[in-house]
Structures are given as C-alpha cells and as structure tokens.
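Re: the pair you flagged

First of the two:
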Amino acid sequence: MKVSPRCYAVALMAISLAVSSQAAEVPALLKTIRDVGGKGDGNAKASAAWKELSASPAARLPEILIGLDGADPLAANWIRSAVETIAERTIRDGGTLPTAEIEQYILDTKHDPRGRRLAFDWLVKVDESARARLIPGMLDDPSVELRRDAVRLQMDKANALFLAKGQEAEAKTAYQRALASARDEDQITIIVKRLGELGETVDLQRHFGFITNWHLIGPFDNTNKKGFDTAYPPETEIQLTATYPGKEAPVRWEAATTADNYGLLDLNKIESQKHKGSVTYCLNEFTSDAARKVEIRLGTPNAWKVWLNGKLIFGRDEYHRGASVDQYQVSGELKAGTNQILVKLCQNEQTDDWAQRLQIQLRVCDGTGTAILSTNRPPTPKKDPPVEKQEEEKK
C-alpha cells in the first residue's frame, strides 16, 4: 500500500511529538517517585509513575539514573527497578543501550554509588571491554563495590609478581597499593598475609581506624534488662574522677586498652566488668582537626546505645545476635577539637555458653570505610596493658 507524503509527514510529526512529550515527562515522573513518603504516602501515584517511566526508551536511561542522586531507599528501589526494566526490554528486543552516555555517567563520581554500580553492570553486559577500560582507574572510587573490583584486579597483579622469581620488591609495592585502597576485611586479610610473607608488618588497627583506648565505668544494674532504658549518670555528665553507685558497689572510671588487630575490647577479660545483668559505659575522647560528617561503625553481640557529644545517635536493644566488623553503621558529625564518643553496653542474665560474650569493636570512618584517625591517637599497643583505675592513672 502506497502512503501519501502528507500521511507520512503527519506520522513523523506524531512520533516526534510523542518522543518530545515523553522526554518532558521523565523529570515529572522521577519527582513523583521521589516524593513517595516513608510510610507509603503517595504509593499509588509512584506505582503509576513507575509504569510510565519503565516504558521510556533506552535513550532516557542516563537521565533516569541521575534521578537516583539523593533519593531515599524506597524511591531508589522504584528507580533502579525502572532502569532494570528498560535495559532488559531493550536488549531482549535487539535494541542498543546508550553506552557512551552511560560510561560518562559511571565516570562521574558525584553520582549515587549504587546507581553507578548498576550502570556499570549493564554496560559490561553489552560491552565487556568496559571492565578492563574502567576498573583499573577505580582503586580510590567512592563506590565501595567498584573499588572492591579494582582492588581485586590490583591483587591479581600483585599475586602474579609474588609468584614470579626476583619480583619481591615489585610485589610488595603492588600489595601495598592494594592495601591502601582495600576496605573489605576479606581482601585486607589476604593482602596482609602476603605482605607478612614478604617481611612487611601491617598495623591493622590503624588501617581500619579502630579505637583502642577507652575509659570504662560499670557495672550498673541491668537486671531483667531494665538498664537499657535507665539513664545512669554517664548519660547526663562525664566526670572522669567521679564515683557513682553501681550494681553491687561504687563504680568509677578506669582506663582500658586493646591490642587486638581488629580493635576488639573484651570486657570479660576485665575483672571489674565481668558481670551478668550489667551495664558498662565506654568512653573515647576523639580529637578531630576539622568538623566533618562521619560514620561510626561498631560490632557487638550485646545491646547498645551510642552518643556523640551528648547526642544519642542510635541504639539497639538486642542480645546475642552475633558480632562482626562494621556490623552496625550510624552517621554523625564530628566537631573540630575534642569529641566524646560514649557507648552503653548491656549484658543480660543468660547463662548459656554462647551468651557470655561482652565485647565491642568500634571505628570512625567516612562513607567508603576509609579510616578517620583522632589526632591524639596513641601508638598501637603491642599487647593488652593492665586495666587501671582513673585515679591511679592520674598519680
């Protein structure tokens, strides 16, 4: 059937208007999704917007990915799902993704780290060469996932040098470069082992930024778990020379230090704190050279609360869940000068063998897990010193 020039022109105009309309709608659709409330307010509108957004052509993917910047977790889930839907449909139907624009988006580290990782995964599905082209330059990337891939590549290079004869110095340098960027415990453990075999000792406490020097006071009463919500004196005042009524006897602050590579402070090794149904407060005075946003990351099998400069930033009333490095991550802001990090550590009265741990490990870092060190950080101890009462320490 022959189509008249007029009909053809009208069809082209209709397609052009449709594409133009859709392009104009993308920002509005993203806004509707980003405006959805944490309790599901606006969920119906967001669902409708997601359907329209998911029908967008692949050319709109970079713009949609940018919509992840600053999005809250719920909105981000909607937007990531739309990206997945568009990319899957495009590839299934034999279409092409805008690879050049997606690569530009990935290389712009100002964008959301999760969005950049999502974009990278789709890019390598259609262009495997992108992995070798991009990953080597991501050793210090703010995306922890992309950084991890870059560290793994650097470790592969170091391993090859390690296995070659006469390349020990080059291998050591390569491993040290990998260590400088590594943030995940499993990778760091392997790197440290290799460096040890090359005669290099690594200060893991300093690398991770674990706090090793604490002031402790306790035990206060946590019978029937009442202590978690009971505000004992350290929650309202910090006086390191003070004495307070404790669970069984008067208590006062004492200094404690851990030499554990991963900053683990085991309170069961401290006779004054080895109590069931107890509350212990752990204080660190952290000096920062500037005001900055930080993450306080801790691991503990006990119930806990954390205050930064007298402000409660988070807590969890849960016992014996297990413990691991960076188990909990909470955000705060250091001020320039001296800051007080106060942890409330609660032990319940269970007598099971697996319920006896009373311990904490805590570090201060940025969003990528890079250590932020106190300017008054003491030298890393080689072994645990004896616990000293605060008054005796001052003599």
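Second of the two:
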Amino acid sequence: MQCTAARTKRRSAVLSCMENGMQTSRVAGFYDWSLLERQAWLAGQVALDGEQLTALSEGGLSLAGADRMIENVVGRYALPLGLALNFQVNGRDVLVPMVIEEASVVAGASFAAKLARAGGGFRAETTAPEMIGQIQVLDLPDLAAAEAAVLAARERILARADEIDPVIRRLGGGARDLLVRPFPETAAGPMLVLHLIYDCRDAMGANAVNTTCEALAPLIAEITGGRVGLRILSNLADRRLARASCTIPADALAFDGFSGAQVVRGIVEAWAFAAADPYRAATHNKGIMNGIDAVAIATGQDWRAIEAGAHAYAARSGCYTSLSTWQQDEDGNLTGRLELPLAVGTVGGATRAHPTARLALQILGVQTAQELAEVMVAVGLAQNMAAIRALATEGIQKGHMALHSRGR
C-alpha cells in the first residue's frame, strides 16, 4: 500500500509540473522515481517533444551521424546521462545534464548543490571569451629587431586578423590584442612567439583561432624576416576564466555524529592538504573535473582541452596545487571558491552535430557560452565539496558512495 501511495504521489507531482510549467531543480526523492516518471517530469520542465524523449532513450546519435563525426566508424558507445538536481546558479534554478560512468558523481553534485541552496546557491561569473592563438617564428636574423617590427606592425596585423572571419566579427568577436614573447635560448634556437588574443563569442574557438593564425603566417614571416612554424591555439585559456563561489551555513553541514563546525574544519583541512601537496592536489582536482567533464561531455564540449587547460592552470605558479579554495568565514560558515579556464561553446562542433548535446543545452536553459561556463564551474565546485566532505568525515567509501541514496 505504501509503495502504491508513493507512486501515486510521484505521478501527481509529475502531472502538476507538466500542467503548471513549473521550473525548479529541487525535487525530493527523484532517485526513487521510475525512469519513465523522470523523463515525463523533465519533459514538463523544459518542453521536450516525443522525438527528443526518444533521443534521450536511444542516445540521439544515429550510426550515419556517427560516421560523419569521426573516421573509421564501426559503431556507437553509450554512457549514462543523468540529471544533477538542486542547483541554483546566480539565482536561477538549473537542471544539469551529466554524462559519466562513475557512480556517485551525479548524487554527490546534487547533494552539495542542496547544501549550497541553504546559503543562496552558487554565484558564478566569467571573463570575456578570449582565446590565445600562438604563432611560432624561427630562423630569425635578429630576435630583438623582429620583436620590435611586430610591435610596430601590431595594428596592421590585428586588422588583417579581423578580415579572416567576417561572421565572428559581425557577432562582436574578433582580434583583441597581440602580445610578443621572445625566447632567446631554446632547443630550436632563438624563437619569437606571438599571442593573438581572439574573442570567440559563443564558440569554443579552436577552428576560428587556428584558421586565423594560419592565414596570418605569410604576413608575420614578411614582417619578422623569419620562418613561421606552428600556428595553433593554446588550451591554457587563462584569459577565458570561469569563477564560482558559495557560502554554506555550518548548521546545514551537520549530520549523524558530526557537528557543523567539525565538518567545516574537516573540509578546510582537506583543502589545505591539496593546496600544499601536488600528490593530493591531483586527486582533489580530479574530483572537480568529475563534475565539469560530465557536463562537458553531455553538451558536446572538447573535454580534453578543458582538462589540459585546468591542470596547466593549477601549475601556473610553478607548483601544481588546488584549483579551489575552502575557508571558514568570521561567522563560522564554510566558503568555497573555484577558478579555472573554461573554453566552451554553444555553437559549432559536436554541439551542432550531436542531437543529444543540443538537447542537453536546452535542458540547461543557457543561451551563451559564458552562461554554460558559469554552470559548469558551479558544478565543479559542488562536486569538489561533496568529495572532500566525505573524505573529511565518514571516509570516501561510506560517505561519498552512500550519496547514491542520500543526495536524491
């Protein structure tokens, strides 16, 4: 009887959401719903049609579509797509699609987001969507003279760069700056490296930046008198940063035999370990990327580029360290902050080619690449907190893995 009553209650909640067009990420007991009930609820939240629900059930990508995406296709490989709940980012409730094979990640993110709601959710921001294109110049007769020549021709080079992609220029993007980095002594001899700063708008930007750098090569060779080598973007996108923060009241962190103050202290101590020791930081940051990568895969991003940029950024001081910071504020509350490069796009690439990636963006309700990055960095911070909370209290096996049931 109790099971029947519970099913009836869930069905009423599903129908109510569908009829009233409710938009919320807070759903109690979502884990206990049937898969069909979850899909029906999601359809009511984000207005999915029958074709889109079929895409969710079947993976969305046909064999013919897969054959167009990469070479030598022989099949498709499926991964689970789950919804992380409870997220509020900049005051907006967000349903977060996550594609991952590792158990407890979706539950952990959902649980941490629920805790963050007690302090107003996550606040997130991004810098301008600027990528760095690198142009390597070799065989220079005079390194200093070549550097001076490039700086003197800066406006000419930027003007030429803006002629190469009129579409992105029309959308408000394009070349923003040109930096010059001389390397007097390398294994290949004296080297000049140009950094083209390029605003990619809502694209990840690899194609636009690479195309522009390649097109600039003859002009750069003419100006410097050298030979242009590599012309490619850098995945250390440290001008395209995403930041998230949250404040969690200590009382919200209390559970079982642990007081809120104990949990806050444990999390801060766990972060201090990662901040001091690269061996710990590697696993600490892997937990952050568990959340970010899962959203990146769901939305068709280049998650390898995101990983490369994140770990390079973690080592920018010369020592690999934590990407996040956890502290106790003057009121005893837990405060967290995460900053890392996030080069993502809502147009082009797999976001265009993969139907489920497009559907994931619809579920998120984001309109721009910067909004997507804001959600992703918040998910990374949530996943980090879930992992180190478990480590600092019950232990990862009992605590983090138990979030399968606790976080729903």
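The chain has 18 helices and ten strands.

-B.
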